Amino acid sequence: MVKPLYNLPEPDTDDAETIRHWLDSLEGDYPADEHERLARACDVLSHCQGELRPDTGESAIRHGLSTADILARLGMDHETLIAALLKGCPALSAGELSETTRLEDFGPGLARMVDDLARIDQLANVEAVIAAKDQPQHEENLRRLLLGIAEDVRVVLVVLAERVHLMRAIKDLEPERRTKIARDTQRVYAPLANRLGIWQIKWELEDLSLRYLQPGEYRRIAKLLAERREEREHYIAAVMATLREKFDELGIGAEITGRPKHIYSIWKKMQRKAVDIDDIFDLRAVRILVDSVADCYAALGVVHGLWRHIPKEFDDYIATPKGNFYQSLHTAVEGPEGKALEVQIRTHAMHQHAEFGVAAHWAYKEAKGHDAEFQRRVVWMRQWLETKNEDEAAGERLERFKAEFEPAHIYVLTPQSKVVELPKDATPLDFAYAIHSEIGNRCRGAKVNERIVPLNHTLHSGDTVEILTQKNAAPSRDWLSPHHGYLTTARARNRVRQWFKQQDFDKHLHEGRGMLERELARLGIGDKPHLDAIAPRFNFKRGEDVLAAIGRGDLAVGLVARQVGEPKSEESKEREREPEIKPRAPRHHKPGHHKNGSGSDVVVEGVDDLMTQMAPCCKPVPYDPIIGFVTRGRGVTIHRRDCGNIRHLGADERERLIEAHWADQPGSSHYPVDLLVVAADRKGLLRDVSSIFSDADIDVIGVETHSERSTDTASMRFTIEVADNAHLERLMIKLQQIPGVDEVRRFH
C-alpha cells in the first residue's frame, strides 16, 4: 500500500504555520544561505492567495509546499524546491514579482525554470493524446515534449513531483476525471520517471495509477498482502535473524532488511506469467547489503547453504548487468517451513544506484526507434541526477549540458493536442506538411499559441499550432527558396515540388514529346514509339506519364529512345561525332584480340598479341562504342568514342588512334563505371540509392557525396561495377525513379 508522507502539519493548519513547520523540517538539510533563500521563496508563496485548486481542493500554498517537500525527500537542490514553490503562483502572473527580482533573489536559473514550468502548465487535454489512434507514438511524443520544453532537467523533476502529489490527492474527485488522470499518469508520467531513473517516483505513480484504473485487482492484492502481513513479518524477522547469526560467524558485514513490495509490480508479474498471487515467489523477500562484490557472492553461498535453491530462479545481474546497468544478485529458495523466499544481494553502491541512481539505456524496454541524439540527451540528464550531490561542480556541469545538448528536435501540438515531432527551427509550413500534404498545399496562414505569425516563424517545443487554409489556395515557388526560410524539412520541400510537377503536367507532356521525337531523329530510329507498352519498364502506367517525366527532367530521353528501337546507322552517327581516324595498313591478315584483367575481350584491328588496358578517364564497358589509343610503351589504351580526352586530341596525336571493338562478352565480367546522381537533399536519400544498387546486385567500390545547403541539393558520385551497357542502362532507369532525383548520368 502507498503511504504518503509529508513534513507538513495537518491540512486544517493555517498557511503561515504550515510554512514555518516545513522550513523547520529542513534545518540541517541545506546550508544557511540556501535555507534563507527558501524562506524568501516561502514569503513570496505566502502572497499566492487564490481559488482552491480544482484537482486537489487545496490552496496554492499547500500545493506548492507539498510538491517541494517531495523534492526535498529526493535530495534535490534548493533551486529546484524554489521552482516548485513559485510554479503557478498568482503573484508571478499578476506582476507582483518582476523578472529582475526573481533573478536577483533566487539565482539566474530560476527565471527560466519557472517559465518552462508555466509553458508545461499550458499543455491541456492530454487525454486527447492518449485516445489517439497511434496511441504509443503519441504517448512517446508527449514524453519527448515534456523533456524538450525543459532546458533544465530539474524542471521535469518538479513536474513529476507535482504529479505524485496530485495522484495522492485525487481520491475525492469524480470517478471519470480521476480515471483520466490515472491513465495519463500510468502511460506518460510513470514511464518518464523510469526514463530518468527516479525509481521512487516511478513505483509510487504506478501503484496509485493501478489503484484507480484497476480498483478491484488493487484491493484484492492489497487485502491478500494485508491479511498475511503479520505472518509474513514474523517469517521475515526469523529469516533475518538466521542470516545475521550466520554472517556474524563468518565475519561478513551485512545490512539485512525486509524488501518492500509494490502492488503494481506484483500485478504486472501476475499478468506476465499468467499466475495467481500464490505463485509469486517474491512476496516474502529480504535484501542483503554488503561492502564489496566479493561479499555479495559470499553472502549468496550462505543463503544457498541454508536453504535449497529453486531451479531457474537465479539471476546474476552483477556479472551481467541489465540493459539499464542495474546490478544485483537475485535468487529464490525454499526457506523455513518450505515457503518460497526471494533474496536480493548487492553492495551499498549498487543499492544507491538502484533506488536513486540513473541508468543509460532505458530504451531497451520502451521508446523503440528513438533517435541517438535524443537518447544521448536523456543519458546526460540521468548521469547528472546521479552525481548532483557528489561534487561542487554540479551546477557548472548543468550549465554545460544546456549549451552542449541542445535538442535536435522540437515537439509541438495541434489544436486537438496531438504531439508532432519536427526538426529544430521548423516553421508552421513544415508543420502543415507534416500533418497532411493537402493542408500544406492550401495553407494561407498560421496561428501559434493563438497569435497570427508569418509562415517562416520559428517554432519551439510546446507551441500549439493552428494552420489557416483556403479552398483554392496553392503553394508559392517562394516556399522553395532557402533564403526566405519557409521550409526546413526535406519532406515538405518534396511535397511542394511534387505539386508543381503535377500542375505543369500538360506543359511537360508537350515538351517531352518534342524531346523524344528529336532524340529518335538524331539516333536514326524510325520505329513508331509504343510508349504505353514500355511505360511499365520505367514504373509508369501510361505513355503520357513517360513523356511528362521526360519533359520535367525526371527521365533521361536517351533511355526511353533506346527502348523504342535500335539506331539504323550507328556507324555514320559516330563518324559525325568522333574525330576522323586514319586507317592503318594491317600487318596481319586476321585481327588480334586481348583479354584484359577483368576477363573481357577487346579486338584491336590489325594487331595481334598487343597489351591493352581500359582508360581510367572514361571507364568503357561492353558494349560502349570504343576506340584504341596507341601509347608509348604501354600498348593500347581503350577509350569510349565520346571520351573528352579523345575529342580534344591534337592533329599529330590523332595519328595514334586505332579501331577497336568488343568481342563476345562472357557473362561473369564486370567493369567499373562512374555515376553521378543529383537529387533534392533529404533524409534517407542515400539509403534509397543504396537499396537500388543492392536489388540490382551492383558492387559499389567508391562513394563520394556532397550537400549544397544553399540549393538544398545532394550530389553523389559512385564508382560501381556493371556487366555491360545494358546492365548500366537498367540501373540508371531505376535510379531515375527515386523520388527527388533530378539527374543520373555517367561521370567522366
Automatic annotation (TrEMBL):
Give the Gene Ontology MF terms in alphabetical order.
GTP diphosphokinase activity; guanosine-3',5'-bis(diphosphate) 3'-diphosphatase activity
> What residues does the TGS domain cover?
406-469
Q: In which pathway does it act?
A: Purine metabolism
Q: Which SMART domains match?
A: RelA_SpoT
Q: Name one Pfam family in it.
A: RelA_AH_RIS
Enumerate the transmembrane spans: none
Superkingdom? Bacteria
An example Gene Ontology biological process: nucleobase-containing small molecule interconversion
Cite a GO CC annotation: plasma membrane
What family is this? Belongs to the relA/spoT family.
Q: What does this protein do?
A: In eubacteria ppGpp (guanosine 3'-diphosphate 5'-diphosphate) is a mediator of the stringent response that coordinates a variety of cellular activities in response to changes in nutritional abundance.
Full protein name: GTP pyrophosphokinase
Species of origin reads Allochromatium palmeri
